[in-house]
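queue> pop job 88
queue> type: inverse folding (structure -> sequence)
queue> payload:
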């Protein structure tokens, strides 16, 4: 098994002039990229005396998108350190809490972010980076005298967590390398590809797309931040073959596309690869207007589980509401409360067995045990399976409402209410009730200038849902609390409204 940085070294030796990264107005060849990795590795090794600090040798990366961030990420990986990727969009408190908790031995940071860490103990172990001054790619640099292994912990990403505080999850190199071959098979990646993932590198979807592309020797397109107009210009001027994005990004691209009155499409884009929120049928129908020849691949997964299922273009045509079938290399078990396997059409908790499962949460063995159960792992999602093996996500076990003795999944109700035009955002919760046990309650935020009575909202639900699933109370809110990844925080809703949920 070839390790991550070693794959880049091999590509640099075989075709040093090939462009590895197209970065806004810059281009970095494989030769330059690997030299930059070695330079960064030597800079990290110059602080080797600090590697003993903290419970494990972590390199913190507090950076916006840049090729320099990728160089330091792969440099840490090359010399057996674990790169912890911090989000500049975190609150100052979240950032301080995370840095104090994991105690990185070195922190690589964009210079404009330095004021945010002035009062933190890591300040003495900082490598400041000015992304406006590209690093010189010097002549041949010596190989660092320190290495890693396939079982090395190389990456710590962060989930938003139920409390809103970021929670670190750890991955081994092997777990990602194993997934690369499976993803290549599923999405049709090869060495000639130009891959574009216009999201932030602090999120696994973008970072994974970047590292996988360079592992197989393709060309990766990187932008400092998502800008719909820039993305469309890049697709028009480069032979992009695969585009990684989330549904909200596509909607922004479509809006920009229609505003321009464009009629052209990209003939080279073969696949749109997405994860996160489920695409609506209406949004999917727009895809061919921008990307005439692109197949739509939706994968369901989790930070802890990696890929779980994939809905390929054929599945999107036949079973658009499904989350697809098990990803290559993945076994799935749907387990009922008594731990027996759910039959066709029955709801069960999703358990996953694969070589891509995470290594655990940083510093939290108890929470790790809640996810990992021997060779199997679960994050508490609930699903059912049809006669053809397609899976349908029902909701989260921890979100389930038991009202009048019946199990109700709030996600199903939220999906219906989100289709009601006056409603901009919605969250459904179960509020403790002496009669029902839990009362189905919808918190709704209306669009600016829109109106909708409680009766209208409930009547809309009754068109699509059984009566026992319809909200028994509607609460209007002006704004929702969010997790650090921008999703509505159910945990914070109870505190915000003083509800017993």
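queue> result:
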């Amino acid at each position: 098994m070839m390790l991550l940085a070693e794959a880049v070294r091999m590509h640099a030796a075989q075709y040093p002039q090939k462009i590895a990264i197209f970065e806004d107005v810059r281009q970095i060849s494989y030769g330059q990229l690997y030299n930059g990795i070695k330079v960064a590795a030597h800079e990290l090794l110059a602080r080797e005396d600090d590697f003993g600090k903290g419970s494990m040798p972590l390199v913190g990366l507090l950076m916006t998108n840049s090729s320099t961030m990728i160089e330091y990420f792969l440099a840490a990986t090359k010399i057996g350190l674990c790169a912890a990727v911090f989000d500049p969009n975190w609150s100052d408190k979240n950032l301080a809490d995370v840095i104090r908790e994991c105690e990185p031995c070195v922190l690589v940071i964009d210079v404009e972010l330095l004021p945010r860490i002035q009062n933190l103990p890591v300040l003495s172990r900082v490598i400041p980076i000015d992304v406006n001054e590209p690093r010189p790619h010097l002549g041949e640099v010596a190989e660092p005298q320190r290495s890693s292994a396939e079982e090395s912990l190389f990456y710590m990403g962060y989930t938003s967590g139920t409390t809103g505080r970021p929670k670190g999850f750890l991955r081994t190199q092997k777990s990602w390398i194993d997934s690369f071959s499976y993803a290549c098979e599923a999405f049709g990646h090869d060495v000639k590809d130009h891959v574009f993932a216009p999201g932030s590198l602090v999120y696994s979807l973008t970072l994974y797309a970047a590292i996988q592309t360079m592992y197989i020797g393709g060309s990766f397109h990187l932008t400092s931040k998502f800008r719909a107009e820039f993305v469309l210009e890049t697709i028009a001027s480069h032979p992009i073959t695969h585009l990684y994005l989330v549904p909200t990004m596509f909607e922004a691209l479509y809006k920009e596309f229609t505003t321009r009155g464009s009629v052209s499409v990209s003939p080279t884009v073969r696949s749109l690869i997405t994860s996160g929120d489920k695409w609506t049928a209406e949004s999917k129908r727009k895809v061919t207007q921008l990307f005439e020849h692109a197949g739509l691949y939706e994968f369901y997964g989790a930070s802890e589980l990696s890929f779980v299922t994939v809905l390929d273009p054929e599945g999107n045509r036949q079973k658009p509401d499904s989350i697809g079938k098990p990803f290559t290399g993945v076994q799935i078990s749907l387990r009922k409360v008594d731990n027996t396997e759910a039959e066709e059409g029955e709801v069960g908790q999703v358990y996953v067995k694969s070589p891509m499962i995470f290594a655990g949460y940083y510093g939290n063995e108890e929470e790790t045990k809640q996810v990992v159960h021997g060779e199997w792992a679960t994050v508490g999602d609930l699903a059912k399976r049809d006669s053809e093996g397609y899976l349908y996500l029902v909701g989260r076990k921890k979100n389930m409402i038991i009202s009048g003795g019946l199990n109700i999944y709030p996600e199903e109700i939220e999906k219906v209410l989100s289709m009601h035009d006056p409603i901009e955002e919605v969250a459904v919760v179960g509020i403790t009730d002496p009669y029902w046990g839990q009362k189905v309650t919808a918190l709704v935020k209306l669009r600016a200038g829109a109106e909708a009575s409680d009766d209208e909202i409930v009547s809309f639900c009754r068109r699509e849902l059984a009566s026992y699933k319809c909200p028994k109370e509607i609460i209007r809110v002006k704004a929702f609390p969010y997790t650090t990844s921008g999703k509505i925080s159910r945990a914070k809703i109870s505190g915000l409204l003083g509800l017993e949920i």
